[in-house]
Amino acid sequence: MSNYHIKHLEEYYQVYRKSIQNPDIFWEEIAEEHFVWRKRWNTVLEWDFSKPEIKWFKGAQLNITENCIDRHLRTRGSKTALLFEPNNPDESTQHITYNQLYKRVNQFANVLKDQGIKKGDRVCIYLPMIPELAIATLACARIGAIHSVVFAGFSATALATRINDSDCKLVITADGSYRGAKTIDLKTIVDDALKHTPCVKNVLVVKRIGSSINMQTNRDKWLQPLLDNALTECEPEIMNAEDPLFILYTSGSTGTPKGMVHTTAGYMVYTAFTFKNAFQYQENDVYWCTADIGWITGHSYIVYGPLANGATTVLYEGVPNYPDWGRFWKIIEKHKITQFYTAPTAIRALAKENLKHVEKHDLSSLKILGSVGEPINEEAWHWYDTNIGKKKCPIIDTWWQTETGGIMISPIPYATPTKPTYATLPFPGIQPVLMDENGNEIKGNQVDGRLCIKFPWPSMARTIWNNHQRYRETYFTAYKNNYFTGDGALRDEVGYYRITGRVDDVIIVSGHNLGTAPIEDAINLHPAIAESAIVGFPHDIKGNALYGYVILKETGTNRNHDNLRKEINQIITEHIGPIAKLDKIQFTSGLPKTRSGKIMRRILRKIASSEFDTLGDTSTLLNPEVVQEIITNVL
Ligand code: WTA
Known about the structure:
By secondary structure, the chain is of the alpha/beta class. The chain is built from 20 helices and 31 strands. The chain is 30% helix and 24% strand. A hairpin with an 8-residue loop joins strand 4 and strand 5. Bound molecules: 5'-O-[(S)-ethoxy(hydroxy)phosphoryl]adenosine.
């Protein structure tokens, strides 16, 4: 893609204006450049936010793997596509070239076909960060199967819920995974989940840790022997532009997780375009995003965006502190990483450690630093800028969501002057607006409100799997004719956006979206617990941590509180996963409620954050006396 490699601010504004004034021409030009289409589109965009219905490149046909792999073979066949850095530093790095990737994806695709998987079938992928994870997603895309990657830190219950929601026929997993010095028995978790998933017919198992596991006859198969016997050519399934590419679950503020559906053509065009411009990718760069492919960041900016650009993308299996806190910096030095993309929570954890871990390593290959997943605080921003970028690397604070598919608001390196804690300006094609509580647009600068997007962009999720009504209600009803992000934001005097955080009951903990309702539901299963309310409070590494207020039943009142706290976190681990464990648990006799019985979370949030002076008027509550009790016993 030669056009729109934006290089300076005037060029940004020029491109931006064009993208708004004439979106069809703008996106058509990008789509025409370098992508391989089997059939051209009839229309660039058809949309109606009231339904909502959004169609990009209608009538076009393509296969995304032809774009991510096949078309690079002639010019980049022996270039490294995936660079795999294992958890164990003594295990050798793997360089998987585009030629090898082609063969491995095709073999895997043929194995999937042999398992009876066809276009439109759902395949659940529950794997550690090993090359097979990227290859499995691409293999699904090759044959038109819809992948649903579930982060391999989720519990058996969470996995089963996701498998059942989208009726997956096949699960791809591993015997286990490495996580620093520990191993995790993934297959055991899958076995537990599959007790409740009648839709699953087969399981393919990657051998990763060599543990002895249970293999259920007729259902479970080792992957490698099947791959060894598979042909290395598999004709790509020809997909329509709006055919689903994948489902990825994200937490909602209430109810079950939402299976966000992303479709083929728009997602490809937008992730490729944003990857190229946000990271100013050049042919010999070595790009590393530390996310897990189990999250949207991994889908869009480890797999699809980089590969669509013929890039070298690094996959790291391990954690930041194994064998020590210098591991990230060691990897940057070892592979001469040029773009490094990570999360504020990782930056804060790394910044707490001795600087000698950084200083030991030569980081001079770095050109651009990225941040994603939650607001980056000023201190972390400066630490990143000074110690990692040595004040020479632009930091791109990229705001976006599982639902948006790609980066929405972010500086363009070298073009947009950065400002700490500001995601700055919208990407070309993105039309953010701020709304007040009555649903009116707030115009002008130096204002704050709720962040909406008023015009479609190619990689937006098209629906929630099996629940289009929930999609409409969650995103398109609060602000008529706008997509509502769930975030608050402010716009400064030059039009830069700063994301201030969620305005709903989603809490971002260490960059992971957690809905309060499912955690409360899990806790309330405990026989001694009557009711609970979860809120977030500031935490210096995780960004936010979880604070639980718990009311015990009569029968639980003489139970030991520390034991109860352990049991509560145990239940959460079983039902959701360890990422949702509570940092603080306060037992209380009541929760502040409105006269209609709604829990006043705003008050609970303030108390958990020690903001006692700004509680506001509590006299209208049903039970104002409980507020004083909660303040007295706050942890
Ligand atoms: C938050 C991750 C501030 C935000 C790609 C959003 C951010 C949610 C930023 C989506 C950022 C993401 N600054 N907040 N740069 N990036 N967020 O779906 O609240 O896992 O709505 O997608 O993370 O999280 P998700």
